[in-house]
Amino acid sequence: MVHMASGGDPRALLNALSSMLGTSGCIKSAQEVVRIIRFVTAGGWEVLNKWLNEAKESNDTCLLSKILSVLKYLPVSVNILKQGNAGKTVKSLIKHTPEVKDVATDILEQWKEVVRKETGVQDTVSSMKRKKEKLEDDNELAKKARNVTKVPNSNSVKLESPNDSTINNNQIRKQPVKVPISNKAKIMTANIPPTKPKSTAATLATTITDSSSFMDALSVSVSKKRAKKAQLSTIKSGQLPSQTATSPVDKTFPSQSVSPDHEVNFPTISEPTIQPIQSEATVEKTVDPVDQLSNNMKPVKIGKKKKRVTWASEPNLTRFRYFELDESERVNVRSHSFHDAQYMEMMRERQTLQNAKFQVVDNMKETIAWSKPALIEFASGRGGQITDRRVHSDECVAQEKREQTVLAEIFFSKDRVSDNPAEPDLEDLPSTTSSKDPTVIPLIPVPDPDLDLSEAGSSLASTDAGRYSLPPEIADLITSAASSLRTHGSSDTGAAKAVQLAAKMMHTGGYQDEQYAPELGDRVTPQYEDEELNHEFEEDPHYYNYPHDHPDQPPDRFVGHGPPMRGKRFPGARGGPRMHHWRGGPPGPEGPPVRGMNPPRGPRMPADHLDRPPFEDEYGSYPNEEFASIGPAPVPSHRGRGGHHPRGRGRRGGRGGRGGGDAGGTKTAPYYLR
Amino acid sequence: MKKMLLNEDTIRSLRVAKIFRENNDKINAADFSKNGELLICSSQDDSIVIYDCLKGTTKRTIYSKKYGVDHIQFTHAPNTVIHSSSKVDDTIRYLSLHDNKYLRYFNGHTKRVVSLNMSPTEDKFISTSLDHTVRLWDLRSPNCQGLMHANGRAIASFDPDGLIFAVGINSQQVKLYDVRSFDKGPFSTFQLSEEHLRDWTGLKFSGDGKMILIYSNGNFIQLLDSFNGDELRNFSVHIFYIAVSLEASFTPDSQFILSGSADGQVHIWNTDTGDKVAVLQGHHPSAVQCIKFNPKYMMMISACTNTAIWITESNEEG
């Protein structure tokens, strides 16, 4: 046996070995094989390693090729490979030294094969794996050009489908896994502590990562610890070591790969029979030397792993996972479109907002029990009659009729009420009314410079007609007379005189149609936009120079009629028409009431005012001189009144008029002066 | 039936006897029927709720979700109302409660209607809008009867006799028109002091026609003499300025003025003296936007989003 000192001449080594080798470098006989193995185990491996490193450093290509050729034929096992970093060195040679590339590649292939056989071979999953490995072999051929070497197990791990792994897992679990492992662990620690765990660690590494450098690092430095941990956890759980687990698939797989691995490997080490491995590794060419090796040592080749990219085979590109669908769980997701969801979101927001609004503390409480409310008894002098005003409403009548023929809407509960009332019936409107523009309501009093006496005349006629039932012909006559009067008297004063005359006539007629009185009043008082001017006009005694009362008329008739003559359209003048509506004949014709010319009114009923609401009560407290002047007072009092609110006075006069005859006289100061 | 004198003591004794939480938004208008037996409220939530004042119950609910409801008012028939719209357009609508059907639309305003008032004696009604117009209508015709371009925000109301209507323009002027000859222009114009910068939101005549009440979205209520425009009283109500309009109302005898406040109280003043008669705690959760006194019965209602009916305690036995 040759014991080589470190740093010895390589040629000496070769020479020493030459006796064992044939001419082509092959081992001469079985005897020689044993000797070689002894050489390796006895320290030759270390020496070779050292030489290899030195040769690499000195870039001695010749020496490198020699050493490599030795390495190629040396029988190795995983244990031996673990000693020193021959694997790494050889691998780096592939990259850096083109001269020895081929040899180094071959060596790596052999070693990898050995490692794989020792660690990754499993009977249970072999059929599946082998198929994949064949596929991988094809890939490998293509990749060899790029010096990408095969990592046997990573491939199978990656491609393992979930179904496969579960199946395998189940199968493996049925096997008595734990005992062999523990046995093996003991053996390992007892006999060859540094080398044994490597198989496990390497396997684990390959199952989890593709990186060969990582695997190497594992195998060189921390392999022992890892292996122990892996074994412990395997023993405990029967599953993959937790620190390497990253996904469920990976977790289950190593557990199967680890346990059969030990079962398989140990027999091969302790016994010469290596049938399981053989059957497994028939496709590998590196099996042959192993078979030829001794019973004690199993020659293993180890290879360094490189990063590689593999693709899943066609059927594995698609992966199906089946879930049991709970019909209720996705109901919200499926049944609503985006817009529905948007709407729901909006409604929810709104509801939240509403709630927020009501979070303002609503602590309203009913403080007394409900009872039927009492009627109000109005204090004396306070408008008890106010709500008793007579209402003239055609629509009221129309609605009553409607309700007799139209069924009432029946409603049973609040949420059954329709969201909208029914739309109105289409009305066939006369085209004339529909196209009619509304009358403009002026913002300022309309100046009336052009006194329309014909209208005044006609009003006279109608007033006369009211009282004396003048035939229309006579009314026309008076009208035309009035108009001719206007044409002759073109000056203001002339017109005014004419109007005064007309006013007198009207007055005499008792304002049969009071509706026109205010208009006449307008004419009496020329209107100017300038209020001051108007004011002056009104104050001019000239315009009030007509009798306000007439002996023929009951005084209450006249109450309120005076002022309109000097004011203008003051409410006082309006008492008349309303009386007509209340007392007199039928209401005016349907349709928008047009001012004036409401033709046939019912006969005037002299006793009207007696039935009217006693306005004395309402205005009873007002009194006095001022009112006296407003009502039937003599003209001079008009003159005497202060004029800063002439219109107000006028209106008051109107009210007083409605109030009836006793408005004058005995009253105290008006409300607003108190 | 028992009668009760309306005086300071009785009005102080008003208490909340019913609270209705029918609406989920502000109540924007309330009106009693002429006989005081029904109360109708319109709300921003597009519902119309009718209450029975004698029983203290809700009588009916109607929705007008398409058009919205505001300024609801009874017409002279007990079963018809007019209201303005808050959606679609600014048409005024005439609704029959009997068969829940619109009877007529009054189309003309181009912006939101801000006041709507039914003549107390006739089928006429007047409306004003943010389009700066005042329109006079007649229930019998969908056509506008009178139109005023007010050059500013306007509010309008009829006097209790239905003879006059008053238009408040630009929060400065009050113009009085004769209903029958409105085309001649106002017979009276009151120019009010401009010291109060605020928008008028409502104008009402007292029941006796002698006073005009103007309320605003400021913190001021003004009481005018309706004959000469004198500013009789000013009442400052609200604790702070709020942008919403708080209604003020007369009692039917014109003796008191009621107004809600932003903090849920009800303030009552005497119109003769200007003194504050009472501050009633209603505990309304938000500003009391509607307040009205029943024209016949000793009953007041106040409304924010809730509607509260106030009656006097002393009539329990009745």
TrEMBL record, chain A:
Top-level taxon in the UniProt lineage: Eukaryota
Biased composition (Basic residues): 571-583, 638-655
UniProt feature, compositional bias: Basic and acidic residues: 606-615
Signal sequence segment: none
A single GO cellular-component term on record: nucleus
InterPro entries noted in UniProt: TFIIS/CRSP70_N_sub, TFIIS/LEDGF_dom_sf, TFIIS_N
Segments forming a coiled coil: none
UniProt name for this protein: TFIIS N-terminal domain-containing protein
Compositional bias segments (type: Polar residues): 150-169, 234-259
Region Disordered: start-end pairs: 149-169, 234-260, 417-441, 571-674
Recorded GO MF terms: protein phosphatase 1 binding
Chief site of localization: nucleus
Record-linked Pfam families: Med26
Record-annotated TFIIS N-terminal domain positions: 46-118
UniProt entry keywords in alphabetical sequence: Nucleus
Cell location: Nucleus
PROSITE patterns hit by this protein: TFIIS_N
Species, as recorded: Trichoplax adhaerens
Automatic annotation (TrEMBL), chain B:
CDD domains: WD40
GO biological process, one term: nuclear RNA surveillance
GO CC term (a single one): Set1C/COMPASS complex
PROSITE patterns reported for this sequence: WD_REPEATS_1 (PS00678), WD_REPEATS_2 (PS50082), WD_REPEATS_REGION (PS50294)
One term of GO molecular function: chromatin binding
Main subcellular location of this protein, as a coarse class: nucleus
Ranges of the WD repeats in the UniProt entry: 20-61, 106-141, 249-279
Keywords, ordered alphabetically: Nucleus, Repeat, Transcription, Transcription regulation, Transcription termination, WD repeat
Signal peptide: none
Cross-referenced Pfam families: WD40
Keyword Disulfide bond included in the entry's annotation: no
Family: Belongs to the WD repeat SWD2 family.
Protein name: Uncharacterized protein
Taxonomic placement: Eukaryota, Metazoa, Placozoa, Uniplacotomia, Trichoplacea
